[in-house]
């Protein structure tokens, strides 16, 4: 039986790295994408211990050239992909008036534009084969407006809405589309956003990158549209989704006081 191949963006650390290594353990080969070539090489070496072969591609997904490079790899019919994981993304904490506009635009470019274009490229490539899967990484923050994480929460709301709609578009084409919405997951994400590793959250609200990766990949295999890893996070997301917008705003404002 031939090995399946997955492309993972943001594969150099955190959830992306864990998804890549767990795929390797499950018998997949990999295409690893990130900005840091040395870290990609490290992940590829770790994946080889599970028998996986890895192609590494250094690309900055905030740039048109970086996105086009990965679109071309996804479209390569000589080396088809069975799974595309759009994990690359970041958030910056602070009042939007105190954050530089260019950084906010780059955040939208990675979290929204790159994810949309790579998801589209994957579906275009997979639909004729009537097989394949797409996994997009959102956040529990997608369920409420979040002052201080204003742009990040909005981009992740896009990811969740876009992915759930794409799930329905892709289903008649034989392609599975899944959204994973993790809660606070200690990783390199927090450092880049100017936060502590736990972002000021209590331990019962935290999930590990390994557990998020496992829940996400299990959901892909099951063909689920959405998974929120962790019981507390799943319950919170369900309750938030039922609240009126005024209540969501108040909760987001309250939570932002403790996010550091």
Give a brief outline of the structure:
By secondary structure, the chain is α/β, with parallel strands linked by helices.
- The proportion of residues in beta strands is 5-15%
- The secondary-structure element order is EHEHEHEHEHEHHEHH
Tell me about the largest β-sheet.
7 strands, parallel
Tally of individual domains: 1
Summing up helix and strand content along with how strands pair, one would put the structural category as alpha/beta
CA-based shape: globular
Strand order of the largest sheet: 3-2-1-4-5-6-7
Which helices and strands occur, and which strands form pairs?
Blueprint (H helix, E strand, L loop, with lengths): L4 E5 L4 H12 L3 E6 L2 H12 L5 E5 L5 H12 L7 E4 L14 H26 L6 E5 L12 H21 L5 E5 L7 H5 L16 H14 L3 E2 L3 H12 L2 H12 L4
Parallel strand pairs: 1-2, 1-4, 2-3, 4-5, 5-6, 6-7
């Amino acid at each position: 039986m031939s090995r399946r191949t997955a492309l993972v963006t943001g594969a150099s650390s955190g959830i992306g790295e864990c998804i890549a290594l767990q795929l390797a353990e499950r018998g997949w080969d990999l295409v690893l994408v990130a900005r840091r070539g040395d870290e990609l090489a490290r992940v590829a070496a770790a994946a080889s211990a599970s028998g996986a072969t890895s192609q590494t591609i250094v690309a900055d997904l905030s740039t048109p050239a970086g996105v086009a490079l990965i679109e071309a790899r996804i479209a390569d019919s000589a080396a088809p992909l069975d799974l595309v994981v759009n994990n690359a993304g970041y958030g910056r904490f602070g009042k939007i008036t105190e954050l530089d506009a260019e950084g906010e635009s780059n955040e939208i470019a990675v979290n929204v534009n790159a994810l949309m274009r790579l998801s589209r490229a994957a579906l275009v490539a997979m639909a004729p084969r009537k097989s394949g899967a797409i996994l997009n990484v959102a956040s529990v923050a997608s369920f409420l407006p979040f002052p201080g994480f204003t742009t990040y929460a909005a981009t992740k709301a896009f990811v969740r809405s876009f992915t759930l709609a794409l799930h329905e578009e892709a289903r008649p084409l034989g392609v599975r589309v899944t959204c994973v919405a993790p809660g606070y997951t200690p990783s390199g994400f927090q450092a880049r956003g100017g936060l502590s590793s736990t972002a000021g959250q209590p331990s019962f609200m935290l999930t590990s990158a390994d557990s998020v990766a496992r829940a996400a990949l299990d959901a892909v295999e099951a063909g689920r549209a959405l998974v929120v890893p962790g019981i507390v996070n799943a319950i919170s997301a369900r309750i938030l989704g039922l609240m009126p917008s005024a209540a969501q705003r108040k909760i987001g404002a309250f939570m932002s006081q403790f996010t550091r």
